[in-house]
Amino acid sequence: MSRATYDRTAANWARVVQAVREAGGEAVTMPVLHLALIGHGYQQLHAERAAALALLEMWERRGVLLPADVAEMRHALGEGEEGR
């Protein structure tokens, strides 16, 4: 999944949570909490993915990994998939 997809998904979940809160008020506390938890999960995944990409960049600069290995790992993390 690309970085842009993560960003869009997290933003979409935030809008869903807000819409449910506005539509149901206090009567929908439990569904809102579940939706908020899902949104938080996407945000956490995004942060961890960004940290992994930063680590790859550092390793590449230091010569710890070969460029082909870095490219494969970036692909596994969804880099360069925006056009898919």
Describe this structure in words.
The chain is mostly helical. 79% of the residues lie in helices and 0% in strands. The chain has helices at 3-24, 29-62, 67-76. Helix 1 runs antiparallel to helix 2 (29-62) and helix 2 (29-62) runs antiparallel to helix 3. The longest helix is centred in the middle third of the chain and has 34 residues, at 29-62. It starts with a helix and ends in an 8-residue tail after the last helix.
What string, H for helix and E for strand, traces the elements in order?
HHH
The number of helical segments is 3
Query: Which stretches are low in confidence, meaning pLDDT under 50 for 5 or more residues running?
Result: none
- Alpha carbon gyration radius: 17 Å
Derived from helix and strand composition plus strand pairing, the structural class reads: mainly alpha
- Main beta-sheet strand count, sense and barrel state: none
Rounded mean pLDDT score? 77
Shape summary:
rod-shaped
Number of strands: 0
Bin the strand percentage. Answer: under 5%
Assign a percent range to the helix content: over 70%
Distance between the termini: 10 Å
